[in-house]
Amino acid sequence: MAEKTIQRILRKRRIISKITSQEVKQFLGCSMLMGVIGYPRIRFFWKKGLAVSSVADTMPRDRFFLLRSNLCCQLDDDISDDDRKSQRLWKVAPFVEMVRKGCLGLERSNCFCVDEQVIPFSGRCPMKQYIPNKPNPVGLKNFVLAGKDGLIYDFAIYKGKETFPDFGLGISGNSVLKLVETVPACSTLYCDRWFSSVSFMDELMKKGIFGTGTLMKNRMPKEANFTNDKDLLKKSRGTSEQRLQQDSRLACTKWVDKKPIVMLSAAFVAEPEDKGKIWCKKDKTFLYVPRPSVPKAERVGLSATVTPKFVAARSYTTLPQETGQTPVRNNRDQRWDSERQQLNSAESRNNG
């Protein structure tokens, strides 16, 4: 990347800039730290009174912006027109593959979780999507395989229908079956209701992987024949029902929390039950109600993707004054509006 960046600066600015691989690593490290801290403007990391020593002492501000505007993984002349059409992420493909290779090399346990996240991006890109109910809804969709320690073991950025092989399970099932190719047998996999289905769980069991996840109502097995939601809500919270497949390979459990939840699992059944702590809005107090082992296990398993989604949600977005583009606004930017105004007022008084 350092050599490609030097060539790009030479072509754009007609100057020779000495950039080393160590400097590129420092730039990437500073960028990740900025995303976690969450200043609304990059320049604040070097501003007096707000400077972060881990960033300001590592790289001068102007040097950071030079790398930021010219960092290059692949030059336009290095790839043919046919490869550009087949590789929609060709500009960053070497970097993405390098990161993925590092993820694949991490030490793993036998407990995994799959989910989708949004990589915030406000620039021009044909794969950019709007996904509601996400902290940053505009960006690139990324399917993630994570472990119970919160580390990402594999990922796949969605590039269209050709992203995953067709296993006959739609995008949700196809994405997971592609990601679990590196998952060892006798592992446990957790997912949410967008991925779960009976046919999907059957395919996982063929690979020796035991899946657990919530289930949409329209995907429930016909033979389940649960009590309808209206009658179930008349009973106390914590009530549960369970149905097993004829071959007893899958257990379908319906449990009343705030509302009835259906879960499908090849690894857990309803027993043994414990006591779950839930909030009662009517009495404004916590209650302890019976809870099957399935929702408890699923809650712990899905918490694996909290850390990667948190980092992605806090990924840095700049303001229009710095990029000339409309940024992806989030709540962090709004919280800083008043503080920016106070800072500007203080600077005006000092200059006056």
UniProtKB/TrEMBL annotation:
Q: Superkingdom of the source?
A: Eukaryota
Region described as Disordered: spans on this chain: 317-352
Q: Which InterPro entries match?
A: PGBD
State the protein's name: PiggyBac transposable element-derived protein domain-containing protein
Q: Where is the chain membrane-spanning?
A: none
Pfam families, per the entry? DDE_Tnp_1_7 (PF13843)
Signal peptide positions (record): none
Which PANTHER family does the entry link to?
DDE_TNP_1_7 DOMAIN-CONTAINING PROTEIN (PTHR47272), PIGGYBAC TRANSPOSABLE ELEMENT-DERIVED PROTEIN 3-LIKE (PTHR47272:SF2)
The record places domain PiggyBac transposable element-derived protein at 12-266
Basic and acidic residues composition bias: residue spans: 330-340
Ranges of Polar residues compositional bias?
A: 317-329, 341-352
